[in-house]
Records
---
Amino acid sequence: MAGQTKKSPERHVFLNVLIVFSLILSACSVINKSPIAELAFIESNENYAKAEVIFQVNLPAALSQNEKLVLEIIDDVTGTYFNPSQYEMAEQDGQNYYIKLPLTIGQKIKYRYLRKSDQLTYEYTARNEPLPYRVYFSEGPALVQDYVVAWPDLPYNGPLGKIRGQLVEKSKNTPIPNVAIYAAGMRTLSSADGSFILEGLPVGTQNVVIASLDGAYETFQQGAVIAEEATTPIMLELQKRAVVDLDFTVRLPDGFNTDLPLRFASNMYSLGYPESELQSGSTTVSADLPIFTKVANNEYKFSLSLPAGADLKYKFTFGDGFWNAELGSNGSFMTRELIVPTADTTIRKKIALIQSPDKGAITINVVVPKTTPSNEWISLQLNSFGWMQPLPMLKMGENQWTYTLYSPTHLLTNIEYRFCRNDQCSQAISKQGETGSVTTSNLPQTLTLSFENWQYLNENTGTTNVDTNAGALQPRTDFITGFELISDFPVSWKQSVNQGLVSATSTGASWMILSPTWTITSTNPPLLEPVPGVDLLWPDLQSLISNIRNNNLQPVIFPRLSDSSDMNGFWVNGKRDGGWWLTIFERYQRFILQNADLAQITNASAIIIGDPGLRPSMAGGTLANNESSNAPENADDQWSQLITDIRARYSGPVIGVISLPDQNNTGIPGWMKNVDAIYVLFSPSLASSKDQSVQSFVSLFDAALDTYVQPLAAQFGKPILVGIDYPSNPIALNGCQALNGSCLSYEKNDFSGQSVDLDLQSKIYNAAFISSARRPWISGFISRGFNPLVVLKDQQASVYGKPASDMLWFWFHYILNKSS
């Protein structure tokens, strides 16, 4: 289906790995414990009541003779595929199976059904997509009745319905955002006003579980009847849990010592769990996990506050949930569980095993290039069945880093490795081809490595030249200067984002535009919702805005649909009839109002409306094939109403956005008359330049501004801000001929085969600034596509760490009359 978010890992690869794991684990030897050591450290013990729960499931068709039906409980701390508990179910009749399981009362499990033969076949949702997991909350003895509606080889084509509702806090009656609603193997999250919509549910009675990602509210569970093409309402008051303090004391195995930090991996969003499947089945980001304080060679302490009654699944690790995590005494993966007590508690635990049994540790020492920025950190990325989430290395000296791998090497034979900066292994890696591999051994191994170059860092930039003679500029202290952040933030952004924000502040910028996103998860009917791992969630956005403010930058909210959404496919494949248009406006309103609330709560300096990707929904909208989008006749009224709705929630300026030049000449939307200012996304072609001098580029930019933008200023009489987006490669000269938010002259972020030209980008930005700032009807200049996570001297538009940034430093300081 168009507009769906796809998971990249191939499931069968991991399933084969699981089979190998199970065979190896059965042969692992038991490690003897020292009685004296056990007496010296008394562990705390949790004994929880259990209840028998019967899982009964109906299948869409009988299994073949060689197949078994299995219920699989996922270990979401170790990783989606790495430590499941599988239970073969008993056949009740040809299409009905059951199993009885003892579950801890207060426990929340993630599970799914699969067919097992010589291969594993996992169930699909009613949307005919892989079902990630179902959720069940154990409250006592119960009968759970589920329906498998589809398999990969047996798609669902039956009737659908939806649930819709709102969550508010009991006694306060305030809305609750960022709470997960689970049903039939699907999930959505409540928005800022507590509302939610879970679309595409199969008809029948479905178990609905509503649980906050940080455990802050009591979990709700109830069966809901889903009717064909109908909406089942759920209006709930959730009780906020009291918070208690937990003090952990952890003892390492006797004789084990390491300089790596001990981390706390868990299933709590507030403790760094991203609530999504990451690279190759990883579920934790090591750099985001809380770190213990080392109080002795083998003893660590850590304190945290958690909601009483929350179901905490956790483990201790010197890496993440998979690498260097604690093991059971026989070398098996383990995950601990704690139902958070109602009073402050001290918890004492001893780790049975860190190092894989009968395997030596692997120490990797690396000397990185001297060009590595001093404020960056180095990560090690490992691959045995796909590149997994990177692990922060330990700094040993100038440009010297180390990491020791202890486990689970007994389950692996060959491990490939590579290095990256600031955890950004999709971009900031060592030069292509500079990877290595190591074969596990029963003896310790030490690898001492070095390499000369990082990919996209060592390009020789020379001295940045600023052309100051292309226009007689005078300081304008009210002129807006700033950057627009990339919208597709990776999950590993939190530990490095501040470096880029510091750099942005140093240029003299005043604004930092951020783009909260939602993803299109259904085309017919249209559905927009936040997807963990793809979109920044409510707490993430508040954290990012706090970072922006702490760096003396003014946050501005520019809501956009996620880059992971297939926008062209969405518009082309959408029904676009009357009911469809009503639905998309209603769904988009939820998204916009969430961001209006965010802007008000965080006191943002402005909110920007009019995502160019939504241009087909405006008057005169077209599709990628140049056909009319058949937008409603009252489209301008619909967008004007959105602005009215925003002003009811947010007291600051509302800015309208438009992309120029417009490939289809669809004109300026009439609703622009209702905004306070206009943000013009403007990167005109400079290909006709007689030479690549700043003077020549200024002339072309002057002509383009007067042709395309000045009439806009004259028509509406509103402040104009110009946002430019030129990549640092020769194709930048083509500029951006906009069509529904995309550049027809080059595919955004795809510059394969193009050389890097940092000097050309700097000249273009130099010219664009001069041309913009000397026009009194232009009130601000924004550099778009700013990636604050790592310095990359690559082909993309981000100027962080490039000569264009130095050039903007000069002009921002000059125009605002700031001292250096």
Note: The chain has ten helices and 44 strands.
---
Amino acid sequence: MPQIRLLGELEVVRDGRPVPLPASKKTRALLGYLAVEPRGTLRERLCELLWEGPDDPRAQLRWSLSKLRPLLAGVELRADRERVELCAGEGDVDLRAVEGAVGREIGSAPLDSLRAAAARFRGELLDGLDLPGCYRYQAWLEGRREAARALRVEILQALCERLSGEPEQALEHARAWVAAEPLAESAHAQVVRHLGALGRRQEAMRQIDACRELLARELGAEPSGPLERARHELNARPRATAVEVAAPSRARPVEASAPGGGAQLPFVGRAAELRTIEALIAAAAAGRLGELLLVTGDAGVGKTRLFAELTARVAAAGGRVLAGRAFEAEMVRPYGAWIDALRALPAAAVDAGLRADLAPLRPDLGAAHADADRGRLFTAVARLLAKEAERAPLVVVLDDLHWIDESSAALLSSVARAELGGRVILAAGARAGELSDNAAALKLIRALGRDRRLRTVELGPLEREDITALTRGVDAGVDSSRVFAESAGNPLFALELARAGRDGDASLGLDALIAERLERLEPRARELLPFAAALGRSFSPELLDRASGVPAAELLAAVETLERGGILRSSDDGARYDFVHDLVRNAAYRRLSLPRRRLVHGQIARAMEPLADEDGALASDLAHHAALAGAAELAARACVAAGARALRLFAEEEADELALRGLRQCEALPAAARLPLQMKLYALRVHARREGDARALEAAISRATVESQSAGLTAAVQLGFELLSYLYFRVEDFRRAEDSTLRSVEAARAADPTTAARVIATTSRCLVLIERDVRRAEALAGEARAIEDAHHLALPEVRWALGLVRHHLGDYDGAAVELALSVERYADTVDHWSQAMCLLELAEIALERRRPADLLRWCAEVERVTSKMSEGSERPFGAALRALASVLERRPDWPEIERTLAELRAVDAKSVLAYALNTAAELELEAGDVEAARRRAVEALAAATAVDRRTEQVLAHMLLARTDLAAGDRDAARGRLETVLPCIADRYTVASRARRAAAGIAEALGLALPLTE
């Protein structure tokens, strides 16, 4: 029967040895969940926990269950159509065994049972199986961890009390208690008492000082009863006459070689892979490359070492190497891997013409990127790489692709398809089994595979002779046959076994061997290690210094020890450090208990907060550490800043994920702090265009707006109504959009001038767009303009509102000036939707004025802005306007027009569909195709009526009247004109072009229209 170990890193043990687990982290998380929960779970619940994003979450669940069944041979995994349950039966699940052994009354449990239960805890519950992107699973895990930790603390407390007469044993449990609860004064007091009982007074005093420092730093408090009583007891004890002797050290020398097989160890084996590398270098030299090299393999198998050999050979041939890594801790940091890779290029080497477009990835270039655009950024990166490769081959390595962020994956996809001159070697490494957990990475690999732009190299275990050659670089006397057999050819495992020598126990597993080596480090290096591990990515010594508080001289000495010991490695320029392998980082991180992790992440967050820059480049890191520290308000604020930066970089997926994380952090905050942050986070979601859950988002914003009204939070109320008006307008619910925007302006008039002008202008804009009370909209636009002038503001919303009013009233020249200025001002914001809407309005003006050159120019800008926005009507509407330009240019492309109209029908955008259909009908009438025009106008009228767009209804009726006149049916034309008379009575009800169309029909019929101005 297998054992399932949950208290620490997840393990399944059969015949005394851990068995390999599935590479997919979500599959391992599923196993952990089922093993913790004693009862069956609905499939729907499991899908919500782990696979809410995929198109077919049930298929993902079935796939994961298929991977678990062979692993759990001997344990019944029941799965029917509704539920899944893991029935341990006679199998051993450590958490369930502990709960069964100690019972409800822990204090009265047998001493042997308590000892056995304490020994079961190897760390936190399901250590390393965090999934921040699966917030329901993460919330469940955190709750279960707290319960498991509380159980452990109770067991340790009981052992400390029961073993008071055996201080050596009790001290071990007291120290474990401190590790589990570092802020528990009672735990520190127990350590002091037992040290005192053993005559180790100096150690006891150091423990007291350490506790004082910790409480002061983390809680701003002094020790109270328990520690003070322990100190008095210590002072009351008779002092020992003998000098205290330190316990003999178990430390062994630490070898100066990297576990990943760094430069100080030989490169062995991989003959076939080396031939592939040589072929790539030769192809690059000849300018014949055009694919991505993907190296896959299990952790520790040597992917990074192979890349080191690739880059060394390229560098030896005079080429340049750009290397970046994706990190699990920063999967919402847009372009993280690319930022790291491009950092190696000196600023002087970057062409001046590319600097503005590259500024989002390289702020140090000193170029403003007010007109940031994802497409231009991607093009600039490709041009930069191609230019760098003109002199000699260039290799770009992005490692750990399974953790890549959405934007980095999109950029890699674009670069892999670009014309790079055939001299750029693109390479990426990944753990194949974990790719399925990252939708962006999986989509990238599948797409490149379909396009025949992917060359995959799968690394397997090394051969016996290779392991022998590798391990003799560590210890010439090592039993290489044993190491090969026990490591199964995994080079990292083999190296750790060789370092452990004869004491190395392969049954402990690779992680345990690494952990043992970390324990042998000298104290200062061991103290620094948790901070380096908690950073979760490469780091500068300066940040480590600020976070750890270790004096600079001691820190540098400790870092040197870690580097010499093959724990850390430095970048080529020596400016940054990283762990030699993620398994080493994970082993170091797991040495921390959950409470201690919170303290460490809190120190890192406090160190990073003053460094937060205006651009928000550090905000996602700050949000990560603040969340893990339990600093909810700081984490939410950082999510707002990081999300705004993501939107500026067109990274909408990351922006939405940051908003969701921030909203979860807000949940426990008091209303006064929570509601303003919630509204800003909801604004991120609105601007990120997550259309799939628009109804749920609308409901959440509505609830928060009502709550903000009750709390008297004017700014939050105003923003809430503004966001609702955005949402209602998008779904063409114009009545509710009008109501929300009017309520927004009521709340805004009491705000500061900037907010008041912005919201009043937004209300004006909304009223014009939905054709409700345009007279009032004109007055509001004038009011906003007056506030702007009085306070010397420059708000895009004001110019947009003025432009819309003037367009409605027929002042095309004035409208174009205002809208162009609005576009210019919106370019420096994250509001791409508003910028796109202004551009579309300019395109409409050009179309109505029959100016094809201007129309095509504005449509090109629309395409640029909308190219990386989430799905909506803006992009297809721009495409439809561009297609209609072909008619103005006397080279009509009706198949393209039909295709773009079909796209508008598909997105169900009735307002803009009616506009496009009316325009197409008018152009067809001018070309003499009356029947086609009539069909278009009938469809336009139906679409406009469905969403009550009066201008388009009038235009459709007048187009139909023209077809009636063409057929000689004057009565039908007169009837249509009479139908629209109430709408055209004054200049505010419908746009001027609709009134002109009606006037044209009246003139054709010889009638006079009662129009007012």
Note: Residues 1-161 form a domain with the Arc Repressor Mutant, subunit A fold (CATH 1.10.10.10).
